[in-house]
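U., I forgot to send this yesterday:
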Amino acid sequence: MNSPVGILFFAVFAFFLSYFIIFGNYRIGPLVIGILAGAIIFLICIISPLSGFYLTTFISLLAFYPQRLLRANIPVSVGIEFLILGVYLGLLIKKRRSSINNMQFYKAPSSLVMIFFLVFLLIEGFNPNMQSIPGWLFYIRRYLEFLLLYYASYILIDTLDKVKYFIRFWIFLGLLNALYTCKQQWLGFFGFEMEWLRSDPHLIALYFQGGIFRKFSFLSDPAANGIWMASMAIFTIILAMGEKNKKRRRFYFIASFIMILAMEYTGTRTSTVILVAGWIFYVLMTLNNKMTFYFSVSSVFLFIFLLAAPIDNPTLNRLRSSFRGSRDESLEIRNVNRRHIQPYIFAHPMGGGLATSSSEGLVYNPGHPLAGFPPDSGFLKTAIETGWVGYALAILYYFIILYQGVHYFFKANNEQIRKYILAFTAAILIFILAQYSQVAIGQFPGIFFFYPSAALLVRLLQLDEAISVSKNEKINL
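Result:
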C-alpha cells in the first residue's frame, strides 16, 4: 500500500467508485464498502476467531438495518453465514496448534442430540413428500450454522473470565437494543423507518395496533424484539438477584427495567407471558432465598397494580389483554390452522419435507400442500415439515437442555457459576416457551445467544469441576 503502484490503484478505485455513486446508483457505494468490510472481518474471523465471533454477533444485531436504510434487499444474512464459517475455519487452524482435548463436548447430552438431529435432517433429503433439493439444502445450511455456533462458543469461551465477558457483551447488546426501542417509542421512528413501513400496507396493518406502532428496534419484527428482550430481562434480573456488589446489582436492575419497558413497547403479548413464566421458574429454583421471596412479593403487588390501576395507556392496555382472557382474533385463527393441519401431521411421520411451509414453501416447493401455510409457531413448523418424529426429537433436545441446566445448577459448587447456569437456563426457557406462538429460535441475533448459552451450560459445569479440583489440591498441599 505504501508503494506508488498501490497508491495509484486505490486512487483510481476511489475515482471510479465516486463516479458510479454520483452518476449511477447511490446504493453502489455502501454495497462496495460493505463487501470490503466483510472481507476484512472474514480475515479477522480466521486470524482471531474469538474477536470474529463477537464482531459477527454485533453485525447480526444490525442485520436488518441496512435494508430499511437503503430500501434494498441486501443479503446480510448470507454474509453472516460466511463470517460464522470464517470463525470455524479459524478454530480449525487454531486447533491444530493446540493440545487441548475437548472430547467432553461430544459426550454432553445436548451435543449428542444436536448431532443426531442433523443425521435426521440428512435423512429428510429422501422424504418423498419434498419436491425441492435446494430447499432441503437451505434448511441444512441453516442448521449447520446453529451447530457451528454451538461448537464455536464452547471452544472459544473456555475460561470463567471469558464467560463473564460474554455476559457483559450481551447485556450491552440488550441494553443498546432496548434503548433504541425506547427511542422509537418516545421520539418516534426515523424518516427512513417510516418510509419502509409505508412501503408495505401489510406492515402497517401488522405493526399499527391499539392506536400505536409496535416497536421493532434493530430486529426483524416486533415479535422477535419482544421475545429477545424478555429473555435478556430475565437473564439480567437473575444476575442482579445473585450479585453481591451493590453498584453492579443496581446497574443490572436498571438495565432489566429498561429491557422490560422495551419489551412492552413491542406490543408482543407472548413476551409478557413468557417473562412471567421465566420468573416463576427462577422462584421455584431458589425457594430458600429470602431476597427471592421479598422481590417476588413486591413484583406481585406491582403486577396487580398495573392490571387494576385506572390508567388508560395503549401499552398498559395491551399488557392487560395478555392476562384478562380477551378475545384475540389472531390467536383464534392460529388455533383453527392447528386443528386443520393435525391430520396431515399424523399421516406423515417424516412431515412434508424441509422448507415446504410458509413463504419458504412458495419459493422452494410451489404447489406443495404446505406451501404458503402459516405455521406461526416454531413447534408447529417443526411438526409439519419433519413430522411427529422430527417434532419428538426437537422436544427431546429442548428437554435435555433444560434438564442439563437444572441438573448442573444443583450439581455445581461455586456460587458464581451456579448463578450463571441459572441465568442461562432461564433465558433459554424463554425462547423455548416462545416457540409455542412464534418461530422464536432461528432469528438474528437470538441464535447467537441461544446456542452459545446451551454450550456454556456444559462449559460452566466443567469450569466448576476444575475449580473444585484446584481447591482440593491446595487443601492436600
